[in-house]
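Recap from last week: sequence in, structure out.
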Amino acid sequence: MNLINRELSWLSFNERVLQEAMDTRVPTIERMRFLGIYSNNLDEFFRVRVANLRRMIAVKKKQVDGFKGTPTELYTQIRKTVLVQQEKFELAYKQIFEELAQSGIFQVDENSVNETHKKELESFFELKLKHAIVPIMLDKKAPFPKLKDSSIYLAVKIVSEKDKKTKFALIQIPPGFSRFYLMKDRKNDYVILLDDVIRLNLEKIFSIFNFQKIEAYTFKFTRDAELDLDDDISVSFLEKIEKSLKQRRLGKPVRFVYDERMPKDLLDHLLKALGLRLGVNTIPGGKYHNFKDFMSFPSFDKKRLLYKPQPPNTHPHLEGHRSLIKQVLKKDVMLNFPYQRFDYVVDLLREAAIDPFVSAIKINIYRVAYHSQVMNALMAAVFNGKKVTVILELQARFDEEHNLYWANLLKENGAKVIYGIQDLKVHSKLMQITRKDEGAEQLITYIGTGNFNERSSLIYSDLGIFTKDPGISKEVQRVFRLMENSLERPLFKHLMVSPFNTRRKITQFIDQEINHAKNGKKGFIRIKLNNVTDRKMIEKLYEASTAGVKIQMIVRGICSLIPGVKNLSENIEVISIVDRYLEHSRFMIFGNNGQPHYFITSADWMERNLDKRVEVGCPVYSPEIRKEIDLLFDYQWKGSVKSRLIRKDLVNQYRPAINGKPFHAQLETFKYYSRKAKII
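Predicted structure tokens:
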């Protein structure tokens, strides 16, 4: 079998995130935040991938891609891997707090808090927290409450003083409060989790009972997150999404993570009520859960425990000019986030909103920030009489409700809102401004690899190109018409557009390299993607490798391709970079015997991206931008400090330094853009 199973490859990727939490070269508080990222990733993995695997088990499917065994056996392997990682996680958590203690930052709990801080916490509980807590008694005769899988719960055991009888209860950790309560004294900082503040005050919460003993244990709960869109043609797509979101909250349980010290009778009661089985859906852990909150772990004003600031740089062609539109009309411009400012995208939209020569703006939205400057700029354009069309993807997983909010707001303010295409997620990143100057139509087009999200642009590395190129712009116009009228099936000469021609075009480019190699010419392919799982694409790369094409791949996440196998993939090398910024940009370079083809794209090499979504890949024609993309790939390929080798055994071995000199790709990239910013 010449594939790595995608689920196991994903767990290997998440272990690379966990490595960042264990890496003493990473500032201490940032390491804690990586624990939060790891935990948040794992939650989504269980809600989506493991939930899908459980459905495969239910229908008794016999085989899984890239795995010599049944879905049940794969689930067992996943659970073993997660339990091993859980031990590393707990160790990292302990070590991080040991290091924080050396900097005067201490974690306390309900048992170790001193008397002065105890009084402060009791006051906080009485004045603010108490009335947000709603304890639920668990009565065997009453229906079990519906739990939210985004919440944290305390399972409470109360032992009566009089007859030693036991009662059980639940407390949801109240939303709307920080998970961390901070305290100080003259020398040190202290942090206590909200869980422990509640434990400290358990006796007050259940004061009506005469108890001998009362104790509480944290657990969290994960449900199947798949949306079930029915085929009722009498119901609008919008209504189907809203209905499915409600159903998601009642999805089947796929994981129960609990404090391993929880008493057996309390654990048995919870598992029975939730329809779960010990050792199948359950994962024992430490005292605290829902570590995704640790993504927002406080900084304590300790700058030396954080990454050094790297503010986004200016772009030499855009900075200091009165009109960004006029600058784009002069030549193509590429932005590289977070190394350069995302503000230029918002500023160009704001300029378009008031430019008397602009008549229309079209944009397709997948995910935006909660307080989106992009959306505000679009509404400003509507108020100024521009025709604004927004293709808004309602099926962006876990952002559906947020997108519904913006859809309604845009419609209320007069924008034309189109809810994507029911059978095809719209995952492309496009914007187009229509302008008329001296009677001639001008199209200013933006094609990107990442979302129109100013918040994620600070932590996701992405590329975006502004162009006036008529060939590209006219074809982007066709993509928008496709999204507005899904019956149209346009042809594309320049763009790669899924699901129409992306697979075919990539295959043609690979075949071209194969022919060059077979004819004694130099054939090479350089690819940077997030995920590579599509079997046909992988087999085509194997074919290219066998023909002698040199293939270098940078794959941040899942990689089902196995590199370095003799007579199959010995000409393929794959690395993965996990570092301060999430590597999200996607681009491809095909050697073409000295006249290379360059593309940036929104699509990974996964079946869904190639065949089941609207994705757009854009050719790069500007020699200046091509040179920049070459440099970006070279920097990442030289990287050793945060680069891991992708191998069949899924051991995340750091890549050895070239010529013994460590090279930190992201840091050197930032330095490059800092130097470039000064060329104004």
